[in-house]
């Protein structure tokens, strides 16, 4: 069968595969904490920048100092938002793991096991030669949401092994 060139036909093909064909997971509690921390950080740095110019500290703060302090707050908040980046996307072909700094794709043939060791904070993919990669998108603090996510990922892994 040839691939359709019409975009609506491509959407129809994705519907035929069903909603269980693609699993996308992100951590819930870390996402909330990262955004709250980023907002609080920017608010704190902005408040300090505004108050320092008007308070007698013995140092003369100018507009450039205030702007620099606010920009520093934005950079710190951006660093905190890196914790909101993890995501895992799995389908019948493989799994894509996006952690804090990098994204990697693994075909299911390379993945030996989807594990969540006792006492671990997040799941991991066991790879050949005793290597593994952390899956920060599935975290223990998310409770039942993490359990559901790991079951879905394991089901896709098992289905690919059976095929």
Features:
PH-domain like, 2 domains, 163 residues, 4-stranded antiparallel beta sheet, disordered N terminus, 4 helices, alpha+beta, single chain, 3-stranded antiparallel beta sheet
Cα separation of the termini: 20 Å
Number of domains: 2
Helix/strand order, N-terminal first: HEHHEEEEEEH
Structure summary, number of beta strands: 7
Enumerate the strands of the largest sheet in spatial order, edge to edge or round the barrel: 1-2-3-4
Q: What is the CATH H-level superfamily of the largest domain?
A: Pleckstrin-homology domain (PH domain)/Phosphotyrosine-binding domain (PTB)
Low-confidence residue ranges: 1-19
| CATH fold-level label of the largest domain | PH-domain like
Q: Specify the CATH class of the largest domain.
A: Mainly Beta
Helix content: 40-55%
- Give Rg in angstroms: 22 Å
Determine the number of helices (DSSP H or I, runs of at least 4 residues).
4
Describe this protein's structure.
With 163 residues, the protein is of the alpha+beta class. The chain has two domains: 30-83; 86-162, Roll (PH-domain like), CATH 2.30.29.30. 46% of the residues lie in helices and 21% in strands. It has four helices and seven strands, in the order H-E-H-H-E-E-E-E-E-E-H. The protein has helices spanning 7-17, 29-54, 63-81, 144-162, and strands spanning 23-25, 87-90, 94-98, 103-107, 113-115, 122-127, 131-139. The strands form two sheets. The chain has a four-stranded antiparallel beta sheet, covered by helices on one side. Strand 3 (94-98) and strand 4 (103-107) form a beta hairpin. The longest helix is centred in the first third of the chain and has 26 residues, at 29-54. 19% of the residues are buried. Residues 1-19 have low confidence and may be disordered.
């Amino acid at each position: 069968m040839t691939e359709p060139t019409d975009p609506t036909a491509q959407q129809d093909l994705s519907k035929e595969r069903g909603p269980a064909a693609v699993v996308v997971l992100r951590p819930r509690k870390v996402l909330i904490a990262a955004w709250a921390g980023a907002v609080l950080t920017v608010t704190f740095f902005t408040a300090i920048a505004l108050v320092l110019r008007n308070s007698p500290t013995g140092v003369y703060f100018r507009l450039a100092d205030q702007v620099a302090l606010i920009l520093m707050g934005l950079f710190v908040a951006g660093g905190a938002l890196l914790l909101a980046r993890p995501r895992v996307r799995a389908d019948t072909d493989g799994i894509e793991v996006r952690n804090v700094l990098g994204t990697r794709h693994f075909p299911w043939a390379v993945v030996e096991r989807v594990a969540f060791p006792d006492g671990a904070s997040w799941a991991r993919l066991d790879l050949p030669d005793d290597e593994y990669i952390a899956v920060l998108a599935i975290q223990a603090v998310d409770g039942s949401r993490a359990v559901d996510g790991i079951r879905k990922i394991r089901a896709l892994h098992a289905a690919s092994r059976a095929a």
